[in-house]
Structure formats: structure tokens, C-alpha cells
């Protein structure tokens, strides 16, 4: 059989998007938050002598200070009164106390050595025996050094476990409930797991006394070094502002979200007189760069504003109703209304913030899923359902907390259809324990 190879030329027409550098950077600019955008433009101005970035701020807009700390500043407990200046580290604070309070002895050297093994939470995480092997100290000397370390502030520092941390704080607190120290020492697991009948029988006390001790323990600080481990505070610059007056909602761009780019005309005209071809080519490239940067910045600001307006249109009740209800809203709904791609909406809301008279909110937070209520009713947002669950639990009788099924029944009475499994899921997301964990035994 003779094999014959034939080569044929054909024409085929296809469409595809060419991702030019300008298009890529335009997409990148849309994805930037305001701070990153300003940094990007400042770097461009260093490369391009024809470009000057003028950053304007709105007189009525103040940046919102945020902290990356995982611990609330609202906790008003006694240990807060002993918190030192946060400008120094936990390590420095402990070292200063040792030099101030303890004489120069071998034990003081051991205390200073132990401090090197304290983590940011204030715990001694390395086993004492392992630390002792690195020194010539005896076991008794090491234990004495640990005792001296645990006498320092903040109370609880140098603990080797949560249990020991709580015991150190109870020991120093004259107002601690009777039996609190010994119950934590001997029945810590039972107390934490609410097996209070065991404790009640062991000490022949009333169950409400165990409840009082449990409430007291909740107020103690599980992380003694927490106030020293805060990261640097940052500021959020809003991209849009919402103003409400007489039930009318107005959405405005901030000056910070659309920086003003100034073309250096005098420099351009002066350099244009040069006959050098390389200079002329350089000017041409830089002028073109300025033009597309200016276009990109304006387009970015316009896109964010349009998306924000559409969000506010869908979530108008959030701005008008003091309860701040959110309706179900998806990216594709906004994308369809504005005739843009979902990815464009996503880039426009991630890291972009909306400021109101009652707070600042990330645009992405206005997108919530909904639960179908069947043919007879509209979808209800998960955010609204969570608020209803929270209200129901806050109003329940704490001596007889509601089961998940009972919450389902109460929601159904409000014409909200939801499964017991969904209630359990949303309750977990709200960090609300099950009914058995919510039961209280207060004094009658």
C-alpha cells in the first residue's frame, strides 16, 4: 500500500482576547484597594517624568483605624489595670521587672534565661527539664526560678498550660470565689465540659455556686501576653460614601479612590525640542503610558461607583432600616444589571470599602446567599436568618435554653422555612454553643 502525505493550506477565522500589557494593568488597578493603587501610581511616577500624582482627600472622610489583634479591646477585666505601655514588648517588660525586683543572684540569672523561652502569649512552651539540661541548675533551683518568673506581671505569665495560667490568676485575686482554685486544679476538665453534677457532689455545694465559678473563670485572661503581641495598626480608606437624607440614598466617590494624574506639559514641551530620536521615542512612550494610566484610573473609579450604586439599590433597606437587614444578593445579579462580567464585579468589591454615618463596610459584605421559601414566598438572606436566630437565643430562658428544633418552629412562625441542620450550621457560625452548653444555673 502506497502512503501519500498531502499538505493543504486552509484559512480559519477565530476570535480571542489579546491580553496586552495595558489591559493587564487596567485589570490589576481595578483589583487594587485604594492604598495599593496609590502605591502603584507613585512607583509609576518615579519611572515616568511626565507623570505627577496628586492625592486629594475628602474633608469629611476620616480613615478608619483598624487593628489586627484577635482580642477585643472591650474586655473590662481587672488585669487590664495592670497592662503596661504597649510600645515595649513582653520580653522587654519581663526583663525590666526582673532587674527592678530581684537582686543579682544565680536564681535571677535562671529567671532571665527562662524568659527567653516565653512565647508571645506569655506561656513557657519548652519543657522545664529540657531547659534545665542546658544549664547546670538543679531541679529545685529551676522550680524556684519558675516560681519567681510566675510572680511577675502580667498575671499568669510563665504558665505551662491554660489550667496553670488560670490558677496563677485565681491565686493572686483576693476576690476570687471560694473553691475556684481547687476546682480548677482538681476538676478542670469537668468544669470546662459542664459536668457540674460531679463537682457539686464532690464539694457538697449548690449547682449555682459552680455556675458562679464558671462565670468568674470566663473573665480571666487565657493569653497573658496578648496585649504585647498586637500588630501595627492600619487605616482603611473608603472608596465610596453613602449619604442618607429623608429616605433618599446618595452614593458618592471619594477623591482618594480616584487620584488626580497631572501631565508635566512644560517638561514635555522642553524635551520635545531635542533632536535626538531616542529622546523623542522616550517621550512618545511615556506620554502614551500617562494617557492609558489616566484612562485606567478614571475607569476604575467609575466601575467601583457603578457597582456600589447597584449594591445600594438592591440593599436599600440596610441603609434605611435601623436593624440593617440584608437581602440575598449575588455577584451575577449586579453583573447582569451593569452588563459586565462577574469577575469585574468581584474585583470591584474585594478590598473596597463603603463609608456611612453608622460605620464602614467592605462592599463584598453586601453579597449574601438566600434560602428559598418555596413558590409562595421570596428568598430570605442567610444574614437575616442569622439575626433572627441570634435574637431568639438572646431572648430565651437561660435555665431552659431552646433546642435547634424549637428554633426551627419559632422561625416557621415568622414564615421562615429552614431545616434543623441549617439552624445548627448558622448557630456554629455565630459561635453560639448548643442548648446543653447554654444552660445556666443562677441563684433563685
Automatic annotation (TrEMBL):
- Which residue numbers delimit the RNA polymerase sigma factor 54 DNA-binding domain? 281-440
Q: Does the keyword Acetylation apply?
A: no
- In what residue span(s) does the RNA polymerase sigma factor 54 core-binding domain sit? 80-267
- Gene Ontology CC entries for this record: DNA-directed RNA polymerase complex
Instruction: Name its GO BP terms in alphabetical order.
Output: DNA-templated transcription initiation
- Please name the GO terms that the record assigns under molecular function: DNA binding; DNA-binding transcription activator activity; nucleotidyltransferase activity; sigma factor activity
Instruction: Give UniProt keywords alphabetically.
Output: DNA-binding, DNA-directed RNA polymerase, Nucleotidyltransferase, Sigma factor, Transcription, Transcription regulation, Transferase
Query: Where on the tree of life does the source sit, at the highest rank?
Result: Bacteria
Tell me the protein family, please.
Belongs to the sigma-54 factor family.
Protein name (record) = RNA polymerase factor sigma-54
Q: Which organism is it from?
A: Vagococcus fluvialis
Amino acid at each position: 500500500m502506497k502512503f501519500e502525505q498531502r499538505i493543504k493550506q486552509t484559512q480559519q477565522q477565530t476570535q480571542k482576547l489579546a491580553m496586552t500589557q495595558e489591559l493587564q494593568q487596567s485589570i490589576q488597578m481595578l483589583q487594587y484597594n485604594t492604598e495599593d493603587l496609590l502605591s502603584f501610581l507613585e512607583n509609576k511616577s518615579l519611572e515616568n517624568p511626565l507623570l505627577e500624582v496628586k492625592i486629594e482627600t475628602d474633608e469629611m472622610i476620616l480613615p478608619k483605624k483598624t487593628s489586627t489583634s484577635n482580642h477585643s479591646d472591650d474586655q473590662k477585666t481587672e488585669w487590664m489595670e495592670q497592662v503596661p505601655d504597649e510600645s515595649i514588648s513582653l520580653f522587654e517588660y519581663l526583663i525590666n521587672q526582673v532587674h527592678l525586683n530581684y537582686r543579682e543572684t544565680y536564681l535571677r540569672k535562671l529567671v532571665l534565661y527562662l524568659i527567653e523561652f516565653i512565647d508571645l502569649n506569655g506561656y513557657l512552651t519548652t519543657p522545664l527539664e529540657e531547659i534545665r539540661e542546658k544549664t547546670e541548675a538543679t531541679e529545685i533551683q529551676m522550680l524556684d526560678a519558675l516560681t519567681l518568673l510566675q510572680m511577675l506581671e502580667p498575671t499568669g505569665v510563665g504558665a505551662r498550660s491554660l489550667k496553670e495560667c488560670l490558677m496563677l490568676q485565681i491565686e493572686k485575686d483576693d476576690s476570687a470565689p471560694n473553691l475556684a482554685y481547687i476546682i480548677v486544679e482538681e476538676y478542670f476538665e469537668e468544669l470546662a465540659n459542664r459536668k457540674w453534677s460531679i463537682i457539686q457532689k464532690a464539694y457538697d455545694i449548690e449547682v449555682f455556686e459552680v455556675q458562679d465559678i464558671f462565670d468568674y473563670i470566663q473573665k480571666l485572661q487565657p493569653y497573658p501576653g496578648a496585649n504585647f503581641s498586637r500588630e501595627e495598626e492600619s487605616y482603611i480608606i473608603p472608596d465610596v460614601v453613602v449619604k442618607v437624607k429623608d429616605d433618599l440614598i446618595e452614593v458618592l466617590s471619594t477623591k482618594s479612590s480616584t487620584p488626580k494624574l497631572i501631565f508635566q506639559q512644560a517638561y514635555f514641551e522642553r524635551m520635545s525640542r531635542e533632536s535626538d530620536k531616542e529622546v523623542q521615542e522616550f517621550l512618545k512612550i511615556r506620554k502614551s503610558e500617562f494617557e492609558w494610566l489616566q484612562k485606567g484610573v478614571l475607569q476604575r473609579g467609575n466601575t467601583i461607583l457603578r457597582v456600589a450604586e447597584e449594591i445600594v439599590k438592591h440593599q436599600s433597606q440596610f441603609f434605611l432600616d435601623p436593624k440593617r437587614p440584608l437581602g440575598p444578593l449575588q455577584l451575577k445579579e449586579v453583573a447582569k444589571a451593569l452588563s459586565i462580567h462577574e469577575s469585574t464585579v468581584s474585583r470591584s468589591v474585594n478590598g473596597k470599602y463603603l463609608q456611612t454615618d453608622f460605620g464602614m463596610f467592605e462592599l463584598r459584605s453586601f453579597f449574601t446567599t438566600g434560602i428559598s421559601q418555596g413558590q409562595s414566598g421570596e428568598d430570605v438572606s442567610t444574614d437575616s436568618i442569622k439575626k433572627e436566630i441570634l435574637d431568639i437565643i438572646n431572648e430565651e430562658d437561660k435555665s431552659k435554653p431552646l433546642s435547634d428544633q424549637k428554633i426551627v418552629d419559632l422561625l416557621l412562625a415568622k414564615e421562615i422555612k429552614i431545616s434543623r441542620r441549617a439552624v445548627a450550621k448558622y448557630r456554629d457560625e455565630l459561635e453560639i454553643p448548643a442548648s446543653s452548653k447554654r444552660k445556666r444555673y443562677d441563684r433563685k
